Amino acid sequence: MGPSPTRREKAPPLPDGRLNMNPPDLTFWQLIAEDLRTHNRDILAQGFWILFWHRFGNWRMSVRFKPARMVLTAIYRTMYRVGQWTCGIKLPYTVQVGRRVKLEHFGGMILVPRCIGNDVTVRQNTTMGIASERDLNARPVLEDEVDIGAGAVLLGNCVIGRGSVIGANAVVTKSVEPYSVMVGVPAICIRTRHPAGSEQADHCAEPEPEAPLP
Ligand SMILES: CC(C)(COP(=O)(O)OP(=O)(O)OC[C@H]1O[C@@H](n2cnc3c(N)ncnc32)[C@H](O)[C@@H]1OP(=O)(O)O)[C@@H](O)C(=O)NCCC(=O)NCCS
Predict the structure, then answer these.
(1) Which ligand 1 atom lies nearest to the CA of residue 182?
(2) Distances from the Cα of 23 to the Cαs of 13, 28, 131, in angstroms?
(3) Within 13 Å of residue 26, how many CA atoms lie on the same side as its CB?
(4) In angstroms, how far is the first alpha carbon of the chain from the final one?
(5) Does ligand 1 come within 6 angstroms of the Cβ of 182?
(6) Which residues lie below 8 Å from residue 35, measured CB to CB, with a gap of 6+?
(7) Number of C-alpha atoms within 13 angstroms, CB side, residue 2?
(8) Is residue 190 lining ligand 1, measured as CB closer than 6 Å?
(9) Suppose 170 and one of 4, 37, 58, 187 were both cysteines; which one would form an S-S bond, judging by CB atoms 3.0 to 4.6 Å apart?
């Protein structure tokens, strides 16, 4: 993770939505097939369909023939709304979403961070977005392998470090070190996950008390 932004720092501009921001290493249909596998091949999973229209919304931006793109845009905008009404999940196509992202369950999900990395799981009733109207660009960044518990709220200019777990109903407004397990309001780190083979220091551990002087 690079240097973490502070809440006072002005966030950089958001993507303007003119580019196809789907992961570049797969075709549209390969991506859809991977999303379906990620959702346990459940063709009726709400998360799969929300991602389908999100990928479609991005893919249409690579269509150069303008009249065709206008038709695709009308389809995208309609299905984006239908997705919100029927699944209770809001995920605009301007949010960059990586591969194998799983939207587990559905309902009450307002997912408007800056970007979501690869292998991220997001559960129901989660909110990601601005902390206040003072900075409309200040949105969370979710690095790879992050796991977001039900009811979690991630706000403002923060980076959720790789492999972190955000507990159910936690509220996060500051950057989180990689592999942290965060719970509570405001969220605190209760422990560090150690990925297999890693010798990472436990940054959540209390510092050892110094030995008393003789
Ligand atoms: C955060 C989480 C991953 C921690 O799991 P864990 O590492 O096994 O931690 P433990 O269950 O051993 O709990 C450690 C401590 O944190 C507390 N804690 C755990 N989750 C918490 C939460 N979401 N909010 C507040 N405190 C929490 C426990 O009560 C315990 O406190 P104690 O030491 O005073 O007894 C897990 O509790 C969680 O919230 N997962 C979200 C999963 C989810 O949303 N499931 C919904 C499925 S539909």
Answers:
(1) 1
(2) 20, 9, 28
(3) 14
(4) 42
(5) no
(6) 48, 51, 52, 55, 100, 101
(7) 5
(8) yes
(9) 187
Helices (H), the chain: 28-38, 46-59, 66-87
Q: Is the dihedral of CA 95, 12, 159, 145 positive or negative?
A: positive
The two three-digit tokens of residue 28, written as one number: 């549209």
193, amino acid identity: R
Q: What is the C-alpha to C-alpha distance for residues 182 and 188, in angstroms, rounded to an integer?
A: 5
Q: Which of 169, 171, 183 to mutate to test the pocket of ligand 1 (most atoms within 8 A of CB)?
A: 183
Q: Model confidence over 92-149: pLDDT tens digits?
A: 999 999 999 999 999 999 999 999 999 999 999 999 999 999 999 999 999 999 999 9
Token pair in block for residue 71 = 């038709």
Short-list 140, 187, 142, 139, CA closest to 164: 142
Domain spanning 28-192, CATH class: mainly beta
pTM of this structure: 0.91
Report the C-alpha gap between 49 and 68 in whole angstroms.
22
Does the N-terminal peptide bond of residue 24 adopt cis geometry, omega within 30 degrees of 0?
no
Give the atom of ligand 1 at the shortest distance from the alpha carbon of 150: 44
Q: Ligand 1: does its nearest atom lie under 6 Å from the Cβ of 183?
A: yes
Residue ranges per domain, the chain?
Answer: 28-192
